[in-house]
Amino acid sequence: MKTGIVIPMVILLGGALVAFAVYTTTVSNTRNTSPITGNISFVRPVSVQDHILGDPNAPVKLIEYSDFDCHYCGVFQHTLQRIMHDYGPTGEVAWVFREFPLVKTHPNSLATARAAECVAKTAGNNAFWKFANLMFINQPVNPINFGQYATQAGANPTAVATCIMNGSVNARVASDIANALKIGARGTPYTVILEDGATPVIVNAAYPYAYIKQEINTALAIASSSSNR
């Protein structure tokens, strides 16, 4: 099967209705958004269904709602990769990735989110993170190249194409989008820093490494204080 032909056909035939639905509920991508509505307490708890890099039991979790075609999201990946390099090996921080494609600004972003979820569904968490990295490095990726990048990530491109065609990940992507909107996200990247017992910290832009590091150290200090009580 020639995946370069199959996947674009899948997107055209299977994605039109979903793309339209998301289009009507999302807004343009910006570095900062104002005003923000929503309730951060509605952030979906991290579970085994999430894409997690690092220790799932880490005291601090970075939940990122992201768009694969967003330039600032691509920049922010470098920051979070550096954070995980520093805090991941010690089990202090875990990075959780959730889909928030802003199709009004990036028409192919929903298709890319679905492709990434199909890579995860057919080849696992490690393949997902590899595919995600390839999407950011090569953004914006033409859907005709999904098969090529799926292969590089260690997934079977035919299986990914079939997954996209049957729509089995549509609900997963829609759930991430709905949760992002419910908590107040209107642009990407939108990140929630969670630590049990502490007020969640919102990072509503591609903030630099020093800022994220400071917020993480504060969260870790709270975690340490709580564990010593």
Largest β sheet strand count, sense and barrel closure: 5 strands, mixed
| CATH class category label | Alpha Beta
The CATH homologous superfamily name equals: Glutaredoxin
- Approximate helicity band: 40-55%
- Report the average pLDDT across residues: 86
Counting helices, strands and paired strands, the structural category is alpha+beta
Task: Count every beta strand, where a strand is a DSSP E run of 2 or more residues.
Answer: 5
Distance separating the two termini: 60 Å
Instruction: State which percent range the strand residues make up.
Output: 5-15%
Low-confidence stretches: 1-36
In N-to-C order, the SSE pattern is HHEEHEHHHHHEEH
Q: Any idea what the shape is?
A: globular
Q: Helical segment tally?
A: 9
Please name the CATH architecture. Answer: 3-Layer(aba) Sandwich
CATH fold node name:
Glutaredoxin
How many discrete structural domains?
1
- Work out the radius of gyration: 17 Å
Strands ordered across the widest β-sheet: 1-3-2-4-5
Can you offer a commentary on this structure?
With 229 residues, the protein is of the alpha+beta class. The chain has one domain (3-227): Glutaredoxin (3-Layer(aba) Sandwich), CATH 3.40.30.10. The protein is built from nine helices and five strands, in the order ααββαβαααααββα. It has helices at 3-14, 16-23, 71-87, 109-123, 125-137, 146-152, 157-166, 170-183, 209-227, and strands spanning 51-53, 60-66, 93-99, 190-195, 201-203. It has a five-stranded mixed sheet with strand order 1-3-2-4-5. Strand 2 (60-66), helix 3 and strand 3 (93-99) form a beta-alpha-beta unit. Helix 1 runs parallel beside helix 7, helix 4 runs antiparallel to helix 5 and helix 6 packs across helix 7 (157-166). The termini are far apart. Mean pLDDT is 86; it is low at 1-36.
